[in-house]
Amino acid sequence: MPFFMDTDKLVTLEEAAARVRDGDVVALGGGLSARLPMALVRELIRQGRRDLHLVGSAHGIDVDLLVAAAAVAICEESYVGFEQDLGLAPAYRRAAEGGEIRLAESCCVTMLTQLRAAEAGVPFLPVRGVKGSDIRRLHPEYAEITCPFTGEVLVAVPALSPDVALIHASLGDRRGNLHFDKPYVLDERFASASQLVVATVERVASTDEVADAGITVPAHLVTAVAEAPFGAHPTSCYPEYAYDRNHLRQYVAAAATAEGASEYLAHYVTGAPTELAYRKLVGEEILERLRGWNQSTQAWKELFA
Amino acid sequence: MTFTIDEWFVVTLARTIKDREAVFHGFGSPCAQVAMHVARHTHARDMLLVEGATYAVNPEPEFIPPTGNDLALQHRAVYQMRFEEFFDAAIRGDIDRMFLSGGQIDAWGNTNVTAVGPIERPKVKLGGGGGGCNLAATIKNLTLWTTRHGSGRTLVEECDFVTDMGHRTKDGTRTQLGFTGGGPEWLVTELGVFDFPEGRARLRQTYPDVTLDQIKDATGFAFEVAGDLKHVPLPSPAELAALRSVDPLGVRRQEFSSTELRRVYEHGSGASCAC
């Protein structure tokens, strides 16, 4: 939300993740199997962050991994799971059913409206829906308002300004200009509504190169930027790479038990002290295959078969 | 030409779409997703198809991937809406139809995708509703679907949690709440098809290998049966060809149990052909 004037914001991944504090409201960029800020998620777990209040639209392994690592107090997303393909989110489900996290399930439209209020500097905005839904019971902070012009009664939702937004982009420069492809999901809104914006990029490039590709989030909104190749793995970051369905399947199978989730974390996250070590564990051959999605329709299909 | 229940089911979903409608599916909804492409390649060539997580408009995917948020779903789309652009259109009432499913669905078309059991300590925490609790208020028509009717646990007397409102909840009716959309129009299941006259589910069609008693046993609420109860119209060869072409990976089958997938049909063996 504030503008960040530094001309060099390039930091290490460790320094980037250190901008997130215990107890922060953390907005997660990307959605479902695409462009989730996984390098930052892994680093937050390595640094032992606690009591996070996560906000986002439709999420998957990012939320599930943070919950598995006991880093989360409140979940405020519109969806957490692995779609029809791989099913419910195992660690999230276990924590919800065990009463270990507070469920503040939200809705894409409500969250969008709350972010827009923060962006516009007004304390609330109305939504037409939500009435009739039990989602409202999960949010004592929502209220009702009568429109002064039409007399309609609408649900008023408060402005939402996350403490920090985590965004993964294809390209960025040292100033913090970011380029990534659609769907942007809520990333642009998170970038302008949040107090801090911490970004990872596949590759740091010159300002000219980022500007030529098209600036999705401008430098003045970004607090820190770190280079993290395959920083969205096992989710996709097109055009660089497709999502790693086999890895997600392995994760969902492993995390079916608390022990399995801990073993996954011990192997791939805390057992890999850096992202370079993580990429080695995943395997260069597998990463190359994910990069090869555009060689042919057949190659792309085979990644998903 | 033989075909299986997943194919007949998806074609039945596709037929709830009218030509020139603007239509959207939520993510994690392979059957609805494939159905939209089938409709656009058969009877609804001028529909506006908006993909559920990429917001691509009228794409021509070479295959439907197992995730709803993939570049494959933008193939040959000349335009891709922004997140805000789609949701603004939907909440101001410019989207004609949305597909919605639920772990639980009641007689009024309320759906639960949040939690089975008490929300404070759920028995099963489901994924969540995406944009549903606002979209269900304003999108003009909803097509509900489930492939788990036969489980006996899906069509229930009362949802443990209402994520997306149907025609009425304990808070009131759609009119009382100021909702501008029409609510659920159809509920398509792997056993039959319901409509919602007066806002409550009524059985209209059944698949020929399913008896009325089976449907009653699997349904947790009492329902009216239409006087002219019919078999679900058969899928046409053109619809089946469109479906097989758009979904070579068979992602639609993810929604069915392996037992259900053994239901195979043949043209000429059952009800009158709609082709």
Can you summarize this structure?
Chain A has 305 residues and is of the alpha/beta class. Helix content of chain A is 35%, strand content 20%. In chain A, strands 1, 2, 4, 7, 11, 12, 13 and 14 form an eight-stranded mixed β-sheet that branches. A three-stranded mixed β-sheet of chain A has the order 3-5-6.
Description:
The complex is a heterodimer of chains A (305) and B (275). Chain A is an alpha/beta fold. Chain A has one domain: 3-Layer(aba) Sandwich (Glutaconate Coenzyme A-transferase). Chain A is built from 13 helices and 14 strands. Chain A starts with 12 loop residues before the first helix and ends with a helix. In chain A, 56% of the residues are buried. Chain B is an alpha/beta fold and 275 residues long. Chain B has one domain (2-265): Glutaconate Coenzyme A-transferase (3-Layer(aba) Sandwich), CATH 3.40.1080.10. Helix content of chain B is 22%, strand content 23%. Chain B has helices at 5-14, 30-41, 83-92, 132-138, 174-177, 212-218, 237-246; strands at residues 2-4, 22-25, 48-50, 56-57, 79-80, 97-101, 104-105, 111-112, 115-116, 124-125, 141-146, 168-169, 172-173, 184-189, 192-195, 202-206, 224-231, 264-266. In chain B, the strands form 6 sheets. Chain B has an 8-stranded mixed β-sheet, sandwiched between helices. Residues 271-275 of chain B have low confidence and may be disordered. At the A-B interface, strand 5, helix 4, helix 5, helix 6 and helix 13 of A face helix 3, strand 10 and helix 4 of B.
